[in-house]
Amino acid sequence: MSDFAYTSAFASNPIATKADLGKFLVDLLDPLAPHTSPGGARVHLGFTGTHFDETAAHLEGFSRPIWGLASFLGGGGVYEGAERWVKGFNNGSNPDHPEFWGDMRNKDQRMVECSAIGFALAVAKEKIWDAMSDAGRTNLEAWLGGMNDKEMPNTNWLWFRVFSNLGLSKVGSSRFDAKRMKADLDHLDTFYIGDGWSRDGPEGVIQLDYYSSSFAIQYAQLVYSKIAQKEDPERCEEFRNRARQFALDFVRYFDPEGRAIPFGRSLTYRFAMSSFWGAVAFADLELPAPLTWGVVRGLQLRNVRYWARQAGAYHTDGTLTIGFCYPNHSMTENYNSPGSPYWCCKSFITLSLPETHPFWANPEEPYPQSLLNTTKTLFKPLHIATNLGGHTFILSSGQQCSYAVKNSAAKYGKFAYSSAFGYSVAVGNLLLHEVGADNTLALSDDGGETWKCRRETKEARFEGEGGKWLRSMWYPWKDVEVETWLVPPTPEAPLWHLRVHRLRTRRELLSAEGGFAIYGQQEKTDRALEPSTGEAFGTLEDGAAARAASRAGVSGIVEIGKRSGRKGSVIRTDANTNLIVPRAVLPTLEDAHSGNGEDEWFVTAVFGLPSVGSAVGAAPGWTAEWEKRPVVPAKIAAFIQ
Asked: Which InterPro entries match (predicted)?
């Protein structure tokens, strides 16, 4: 297949050194110039809407690149385009200028954008604050300080006000509110639940996604621990201790190729997923073995390199698209403006460090050998992480978004999330191919007209010695209950994981359970996969089994219990359901249920083997692994009996 239109303009950058990373940042900042307003205070990248106003959307486009710009300037970098932002600070904070950002109200999106500005004042004061006019500085500190008496959401947003005050303190502003900052920090500490993890909100919130790590909380804690070390040493050391614990879990969300496991919301922030590792370096924090400085550097840079190669992440002018591996509005949230993806610029924080820093002075190391082919129970986020057989993924039960978010069932409710295969979102609520029902059990009570997937998971807990599997409940209707056990791969069958379901229903239902969605095209012609056997690329439907093999690897699903009515099929999902590939197929098991109220048991084995590196397709010999079948743990088998 031709590489035309599939090659990123940034792919030739090796992103191996500080200079390489700096060039990538500059190459991202330069294309913003034509989209910048005459007064410099707004960046307009497109016409899609958000739940907040258009001025705030333009402020996003202006502020979010500052995460990278401030790090670059603070680390000694020189960028002529920085004058656009200095000019923008002078004008955007000026109530009498036509490009004024507007005063802040309660729970205002402008509060989010203040975090990057506060960071910039703290790390690049000489290049930004000192370069502003006297009137501009007065206006900016008044504008930032205007959030101190406003109501904020009871979430990670409180960190944005902390960063505003932190920046004000570092420039000696009288608008710095030490009392307000301490109160916010004290409240944020109530989100902490142990093992390094913080939830994104008060007790009762069950969200521990990338906001608990790279997007907000852990990142903010580490940056604060460096900037406020003299003023708040006890709290800073606590933040550092949390990061040391957290890192040993968080490393499990990355694979040896640099990809992070897509999970949760705001994934259009892309390589912000790895910014925790950059924040570790910024905070000069040495982590426990095997997370050496070389390993930390590799985790960060491999992820950035992966995203530099994704052509679909960028428009042809070099600006970022809204989506994941390609433009995709179905997977976004109503707070994603065209400027939102530039939250990824948090990952440029290592540009603030000198070449002599251990992050840059130590050679890059691969993913730790001791963590390969292992499985770990992650108790706080209710995940089981594994990379047995060369496939990095998590099993998940128990997380859910605490408020309405588009496609939250897909973002939090699926059984498994893979670094290689990603996950799929619904593009409609009708026929099965619109639902994106990978790694979920979809149910329909109207003959397949509409489908429900797990959104609210109840009674989730670990069972078995040391938390060997996850057990949970789902109540899609008042007269339907689904109990599910998720069992990770074993060394005996490393490419399979198990899902055991008990369905009890008083209404007639159809069910469809999907495996991993996978790239669904032929290699040479790019036409749709056709039926095939053996190790050839194609699809296979064989009784209660289905699988698909393509250049992306192999995905399959099999009923291995006594359920006789299940039938395997390979569904061609609607275009743009999957986050990683716009054309996907989905091995699926379908069944019908009479609604007699008796227990019905499914024992589902799910197979996944992604291709590695530049290889086309799964490694030869994979059919031998396909012929294996996992064993149901004795305690779960006893329930079935």
From this structure: DUF2264_C (IPR049237), DUF2264_N (IPR049349), UCP014753 (IPR016624)
Given a contact cutoff of 8 angstroms between Cβ atoms, the answer to whether 412 and 402 are in contact is no
What is the three-class DSSP state of 226?
A: helix
- Cβ atoms within 10 Å of 601's Cβ, excluding its own: 15
Q: Say whether pTM exceeds 0.85.
A: yes
Region 424-440 average pLDDT? 94
Per the CB < 8 A criterion, the answer to whether 573 and 585 are in contact is yes
Tokens of 49: 């809407």
% of the chain with per-residue pLDDT over 90: 96
Alpha-carbon gap, residue 308 to 87, rounded angstroms: 29
Amino acid in position 441: L
Helix 110-123 with 217-227: angle, nearest 10 deg: 30
- Asked if residues 633 and 564 have their Cβ atoms less than 8 Å apart, the reply is no
Q: What is the pLDDT of residues 517-556, one digit of tens each?
A: 999 999 989 999 999 999 999 999 999 999 999 999 999 9
Nearest CA among 172, 144, 159 for reference residue 224: 159
Instruction: Express each pLDDT in 72-108 by its tens digit.
Output: 999 999 999 999 999 999 999 999 999 999 999 999 9
pLDDT of residue 1: 57
**What pLDDT score does 641 carry?**
83
* Mean pLDDT for the stretch of residues 53-74: 98
- Report CA-CA distances (Å) from 144 to 93, 107, 119, 164, 220: 9, 14, 12, 6, 18
CATH fold of 373-640 reads Beta-galactosidase; Chain A, domain 5 (2.70.98)
Res 3 pLDDT > 80: no
What DSSP string describes 129-189? TTTS-HHHHHHHHHHHHTTTTS---SSTTHHHHHHHHHHHHHTT-TT--HHHHHHHHHHHH
Neighbours of 95 (CB within 10 A): 11
Cβ neighbour number for residue 241 with a 10 Å cutoff: 13
Beta carbons of 405 and 266 less than 8 angstroms apart: no
- What one-character-per-residue DSSP string does 431-486 give? SHHHH--TTSEEEESSTTSS-B---S-EEEEEETTTT-EEEEEEEEETTEEEEEEE
Residue 100: other Cβ atoms inside 10 A: 17
Name the pairing type of β-strands 393-396 and 600-610: unpaired
How far, in Å, CA of 424 to CA of 575, rounded?
Answer: 10
Q: What's the pLDDT at 2? A: 63
Q: What are phi and psi of 282, to 5 degrees?
A: -55, -40
For 1, counting Cβ atoms within 10 Å of its Cβ (0-12 exposed, 13-18 middle, 19+ buried), the class is: exposed
For residue 189, give the nearest of 220, 151, 214, 210 by alpha carbon: 220
Whole-number Å distance between alpha carbons of 208 and 215: 11
Tell which CATH classification among 1.50.10.20, 2.70.70.10, 1.10.760.10, 2.40.160.10 matches the domain 18-369: 1.50.10.20
**List of residues 6+ apart from 148 with CB closer than 8 A:** 161, 165, 175, 177, 180
Q: Where are the domains of the chain?
A: 18-369, 373-640
557, two tokens: 């699903």
Q: For residue 64, is pLDDT > 80?
A: yes
Q: With CA atoms as reference, report the closest residue to 255 among 165, 389, 91.
A: 389
Q: CB count, 10 Å around CB of 356? A: 8
Rounded Cα–Cα distance for residues 575 and 417 (Å): 20
Residue type, 214: S
Tokens of 146: 């205007």
Residue 394: half-sphere exposure toward Cβ, Cα within 13 Å: 33
